[in-house]
Design brief:
Shape: elongated
CATH class: Alpha Beta
Structural class: alpha+beta
Number of domains: 1
Protein name: ATP phosphoribosyltransferase
CATH architecture: 2-Layer Sandwich
Oligomer: single chain
InterPro entries: DUF34/NIF3_sf, N-reg_PII/ATP_PRibTrfase_C
CATH topology: Alpha-Beta Plaits
Distance between the termini: 19 Å
Order of helices and strands: EHEEHE
Number of helices: 2
Length: 113
Amino acid sequence: MDSALQKFKLVFFVPPAALSACKTAIFAAGAGCFPGPAGYTDCCFISRGTGQFKPGYAANPHIGKVGELEQVDECRVEAICLGRETAVKAVEALKRAHPYEEPAYEVYKMEDL
């Protein structure tokens, strides 16, 4: 791993039933590789919480009904991505693996201090 690469943090929210598939997808795209000589891979942090959304009238929701407020059990997953290209590939893989019509995710550029 090149520790000089810019680091990004991918954060996404997923129902527990799809957690394994989404992690497998982002790891296959290169996310979760910790920089350093030890060679750690498949690294992430997972926390449970409640997600809330109301599908719009043009939506085709995986969970819930159009126009109705929904609260669901979800996992928040955080994984490092080394290099912008890895972050882009991880997001693309996440979108393919995720069951939601519009997966909620965020990508943060990290600073070395």
